[in-house]
Amino acid sequence: MSSRVSSGVPGFDVLLGGGFPAGRMYLLEGRPGTGKTTFALHFCRAAVEAGERVLYVTLSQRRDELLAIADSHGWDLEGVDVLDVESGGLDLHASDHTLFPAGDVDLVDLMDTVLGAVGSVRPARLVLDSAAELRLLSGDGLRSRRRFLALKHALGQRDVTTLLLDDYSASDGDSAVYSIMHGVVRLERDAPQYGQVYRRLQIPKIRGVDHPTGYHDFRILHGGLEVYPSLTMRLKDEGADERAEAGEVGASRSSRIDGLDAMLDGGLDPGASCVVVGVSGTGKSSLAASYAVAAAEGGAPAAIYTFDERKRTLLDRMEGLGYDLRSMGDVLQVQELSASIMTTGRFIDRVHRDVEAGVRLVVIDSLTGFTHACPGADRAASQLHDLLAYLGGRGVVTLLTVPEHGLLGDATAPQIDISYVADTVLLLQHYEARGEIRKAIAVVKRRRGGHDRRVRQFVMSDDGMAVGDAITDYQGVLTGLAAFVDGTSL
């Protein structure tokens, strides 16, 4: 395998199995504002950190604009040679060149100047910003292709790894440029009506590299880009297959709710995924949190990711039930998330990092928040399937709350159906009996082992939560409309 060159972008090199193959030319394309220049600056900084010479040729913006972008991330460009064509000047260490404004320079002369600078600096890496200006100077497509081919050949002879930036809206998928490039990386952004901009990238082409063809989330923040590889790629990079063969086995998890563990024949199985379904107010979040508390009290780190309510509200409510989550420190994390700014890729990356750091029980509250963070039900379903498979393989017990609609629930299907991947399904329901609103609980499914098939009382009070006697006097309890067994409605 050829040597690899790091992109310098956190998370990106995982997608290519270690970075770009060295000595090749790559196209980095995207519409304005997608982060192409920031990506390129990562690439340059990685070269400096590796002790390599790097040349940044800018045709579309001035050197001071480039410095301003770097400064916005807390970076400097020390060690990066910058060739500023637009301003008519050249800033190279210990070199003396004079350029004319880009509009007066013939493409051949420009190419000669760039190659002359490459010969002077002798960089291991080169950034050309951007292809749009080269395309304008070259005119027709045939001439453009010839010049790009000549440039690629000349740089290839010098063993320079080149990143060519391009505005995707300008090229509109220029097939001539695509066919010349050794690889293509595309950055995209989507601005919803509400919430932060959603960014993702894909790699349509990298010759000779087994790379993922799907999308991967990324974001731009102070300090540059962060890419969140798909969980499949992340595990492949970490050698998950070898770890799986070693057999990671967790422990059964108790809720420490009187009667509930008995319904589940002792508790949740190691690595099991448990879906807690119910309408608002039935106690889904509290029941799921009780498992996290029990795990933490037993010395197993746990994490609660809440999309649907504030952290303080959850802590106060659990305290009212007799659970002091605040006193558990780092052994029990409660993370408040917003679906409007937390993408699915970023969330899965966070869960992955927490589990690799030792978390053994995960609560995701709720499915609605998870799906709102992911555009497209199909993609959400596949990502959730991968996440649950990963957690199960690590022996981590996962609880996921699924809200039903309405006061008593209805037949409306959830955005995604996860019943087929759930090992255990608990159903909570309100029902009316003798003029009183009560709660019921039932184990609808348990994949491994037996379980109590009766519908039981579920009680929440200042003394905590408890499962009571089986409800034998009524039928239709799980519909919310209980009736005497003889058919007389209450």
Mean pLDDT: 84
Strand order of the largest sheet: 5-4-6-7-3-8-9-10-11
Main sheet record? 9 strands, mixed
**Total strands:** 22
Instruction: Give the distance, in angstroms, between the N- and C-terminal Cα atoms.
Output: 75 Å
Shape: elongated
Strand content: 25-35%
Please report the number of helical segments.
16
Structural class: alpha/beta
Indicate the radius of gyration in whole angstroms.
29 Å
Task: Catalogue the unreliable spans.
Answer: 89-105, 242-247
Helix content: 25-40%
Q: Which short descriptors sum up this protein?
A:
490 residues; alpha/beta; 9-stranded mixed sheet; 16 helices; 22 strands; elongated
Please sum up the structure shown:
This protein has 490 residues and is α/β, with parallel strands linked by helices. The protein has 16 helices and 22 strands.
Notes on the protein architecture:
The chain has helices at 12-15, 36-49, 63-72, 107-121, 131-138, 141-157, 168-171, 175-180, 231-237, 240-246, 260-263, 284-297, 311-320, 344-356, 367-372, 377-393; strands at 4-5, 20-21, 25-30, 54-58, 80-84, 125-129, 161-167, 183-190, 198-206, 216-221, 224-228, 273-278, 302-306, 332-336, 361-365, 397-403, 424-433, 436-446, 456-461, 464-470, 474-475, 483-484. The strands form 4 sheets. The protein has a 9-stranded mixed beta sheet, with helices on both faces. The chain has a 9-stranded mixed beta sheet with strand order 14-13-15-16-12-17-18-19-20, with helices on both faces. Strands 1-2 form a two-stranded antiparallel ribbon. Helix 4 runs parallel beside helix 6 and helix 5 packs across helix 6 (141-157). The radius of gyration is 29 Å and the shape is elongated. The protein is an alpha/beta fold and 490 residues long. The chain contains 16 helices and 22 strands.
